[in-house]
C-alpha cells in the first residue's frame, strides 16, 4: 500500500506491506518537514503549507517508491489522508493519490488522519485489536475504544484545547521555537516544577473528557513573567507534569471503565516477550506520545490497572505516511475502498461511521 500524508506541515509518503494475518512491515517512510518554512511565523501558515506540499509531493513519493524497491505494478492500492486537517494541504495529497489510482488502475482509500494515528502502534509491534487508545496530538486529545479500522468508539475528548496545542502555546510564551513540545520537554530536563502550582482541571469527574485551556492561560502568563532561565526551566517542568498528570488521571478513569465493560473477554497482560493480543492493552499515539515523561506516566497508570502498555516507535508518533498506508491496507482487507471523487474534509470525527449507524450514539 502506498500512503500519502499532507494534512498539516509534513509532506510524507510510505510503502507498507500487510500480510493477510495482519502483520505490518514498513518498506519505506519518507517525511519532509516544513518546520523551516513556518518557523519565522511561530506556527503553521496554511497557504505556505499547501504550496510547499505541491512542490514536495512528487519527489517525496518517488523517494518512498525507490526506498521500498518496488514499482507501481507491485502496489495493491493507494491511501491518502482525506482529513481532518488544513484543507489546502489535504487536497494536494488526496488529488495526487487519485492521480496515481487512476493512472495505475488501483483502488483509492481515503483515510482519516486520526485513524492513521490510531493504528500507528501496529507499525512497531503485531498489536491485535481491541485496545484502549489515548490519542494525543497537536489538534486532538481523545480516549477511544479501538476494535479496528472504521470501528472505534470515542469515550472522551477535550472540551477546549488539545494537549499538543497547550505544549505549543506555552512553549511560544516561554520563547521556545515551533513545534513547542520537543523544545519544552528538553527545557524541562533542567527544571524543578514543584515551585509552581498550576491549575488542575476536571479532577474526579466521572466522564473521560479533558481540558487544557486553564493550564494554557495560567502557564502562558507565568511564562511571560519569568526572569531567569532557571525559572523558565522550572515552569516547563511544571507544565509537563501537569499535562502528564491530567492525561494519566483521565486515562485511569477510562481504563477502569473499559476493564469493567470487557473484563470477561479480556485477559490479564502476558509475560514480557510473548505476543501481544486479546488482552487488556492500553496504547498511546500522536505527537505528544513522543514525550518521555508522558510515556512513563501512562505506562505506570496502565500497570496499576493491570493493562499492558504500548506506544508507537518515536518516528511514527508525529505525522508520517506509514500510519496512513497501514490504515489504508487494513481498510482494503475489509473491502472498504473509496470513490474516486472522495472529498477532502477539514473536519471529520473518527467514530462517524458508528455514529451514523447508531442514532443513539453521539
Ligand atoms: P492532529 O494529528 O491532531 O491533526 P498534528 O498532526 O499537527 O495534529 P501530530 O503531528 O500528531 O499533530 O503531533 C504534533 C504535536 O505533538 C505538536 O503539538 C507537538 O508540540 C507535539 N509534540 C511532538 N513531540 C513532543 C514531545 N516530545 N513532547 C510533547 N509534545 C510533543
Ligand atoms: Mg506537524
Ligand atoms: Fe497528526
Automatic annotation (TrEMBL):
Keywords: Acyltransferase, Cytoplasm, Iron, Metal-binding, Transferase, tRNA processing
Protein origin, superkingdom: Bacteria
GO biological process, one term: tRNA threonylcarbamoyladenosine modification
UniProt biased composition (Basic and acidic residues): 343-361
Predominant place of localization: cytoplasm
Cofactor binding summary note: Binds 1 Fe(2+) ion per subunit.
Entry binding sites for Fe cation: 113, 117, 319
CDD domains attached to this UniProt entry: ASKHA_NBD_TsaD_bac (cd24133)
Cellular-component GO terms for this entry: cytoplasm
Gene3D superfamilies, sorted: 3.30.420.40
Cofactor: Fe(2+)
Ranges where the record places region Disordered: 343-362
InterPro entries (alphabetical): ATPase_NBD, Gcp-like_dom, KAE1/TsaD, TsaD
Catalytic activity from the UniProt record: L-threonylcarbamoyladenylate + adenosine(37) in tRNA = N(6)-L-threonylcarbamoyladenosine(37) in tRNA + AMP + H(+)
Localization: Cytoplasm
SUPFAM superfamilies attached to this UniProt entry: Actin-like ATPase domain
UniProt xrefs under PANTHER family: TRNA N6-ADENOSINE THREONYLCARBAMOYLTRANSFERASE (PTHR11735), TRNA N6-ADENOSINE THREONYLCARBAMOYLTRANSFERASE, MITOCHONDRIAL (PTHR11735:SF6)
Protein function: Required for the formation of a threonylcarbamoyl group on adenosine at position 37 (t(6)A37) in tRNAs that read codons beginning with adenine. Is involved in the transfer of the threonylcarbamoyl moiety of threonylcarbamoyl-AMP (TC-AMP) to the N6 group of A37, together with TsaE and TsaB. TsaD likely plays a direct catalytic role in this reaction.
This protein's name: tRNA N6-adenosine threonylcarbamoyltransferase
Source species of the chain: Brevundimonas lenta
Amino acid at each position: 500500500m502506498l500512503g500519502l500524508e499532507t494534512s498539516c506541515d509534513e509532506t510524507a509518503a510510505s510503502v507498507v506491506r500487510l500480510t493477510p494475518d495482519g502483520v505490518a512491515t514498513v518498506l519505506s517512510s519518507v517525511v519532509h518537514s516544513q518546520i523551516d518554512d513556518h518557523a519565522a511565523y511561530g506556527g503553521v501558515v496554511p497557504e505556505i503549507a499547501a504550496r510547499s506540499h505541491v512542490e514536495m509531493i512528487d519527489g517525496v513519493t518517488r523517494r518512498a517508491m525507490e526506498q521500498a524497491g518496488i514499482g507501481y505494478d507491485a502496489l495493491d492500492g493507494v491511501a491518502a489522508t482525506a482529513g481532518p486537517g488544513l484543507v489546502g494541504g489535504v487536497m494536494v495529497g488526496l488529488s495526487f493519490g487519485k492521480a496515481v489510482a487512476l493512472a495505475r488502475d488501483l483502488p483509492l482509500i481515503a483515510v482519516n488522519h486520526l485513524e492513521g494515528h490510531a493504528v500507528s502502534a501496529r507499525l512497531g509491534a503485531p498489536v491485535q485489536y481491541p485496545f484502549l487508545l489515548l490519542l494525543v496530538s497537536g489538534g486532538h486529545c481523545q480516549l477511544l475504544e479501538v476494535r479496528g479500522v472504521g470501528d472505534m468508539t470515542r469515550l472522551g475528548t477535550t472540551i477546549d484545547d488539545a494537549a499538543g496545542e497547550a505544549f505549543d502555546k506555552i512553549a511560544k510564551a516561554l520563547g521556545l521555537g515551533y513545534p513547542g513540545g520537543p523544545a519544552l520537554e528538553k527545557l524541562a530536563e533542567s527544571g524543578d516544577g514543584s515551585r509552581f502550582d498550576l491549575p488542575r482541571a476536571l479532577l474526579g469527574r466521572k466522564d473521560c473528557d479533558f481540558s487544557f485551556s486553564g493550564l494554557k492561560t495560567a502557564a502562558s502568563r507565568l511564562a511571560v513573567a519569568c526572569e531567569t532561565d532557571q525559572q523558565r526551566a522550572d515552569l516547563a517542568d511544571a507544565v509537563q507534569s501537569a499535562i502528564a498528570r491530567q492525561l494519566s488521571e483521565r486515562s485511569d478513569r477510562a481504563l477502569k471503565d473499559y476493564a469493567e465493560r470487557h473484563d470477561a473477554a479480556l485477559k490479564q497482560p502476558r509475560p514480557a516477550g510473548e505476543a501481544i493480543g486479546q488482552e487488556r492493552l492500553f496504547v498511546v499515539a500522536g505527537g505528544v506520545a513522543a514525550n518521555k515523561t508522558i510515556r512513563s506516566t501512562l505506562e505506570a497508570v496502565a500497570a496499576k490497572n493491570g493493562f499492558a502498555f504500548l506506544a508507537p516507535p518515536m518516528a511514527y508518533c508525529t505525522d508520517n505516511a506509514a500510519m496512513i498506508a497501514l490504515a489504508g491496507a487494513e481498510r482494503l482487507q475489509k473491502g472498504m475502498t473509496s470513490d474516486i471523487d472522495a472529498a477532502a474534509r477539514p473536519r471529520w470525527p473518527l467514530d462517524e461511521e458508528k455514529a451514523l449507524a447508531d442514532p443513539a450514539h453521539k
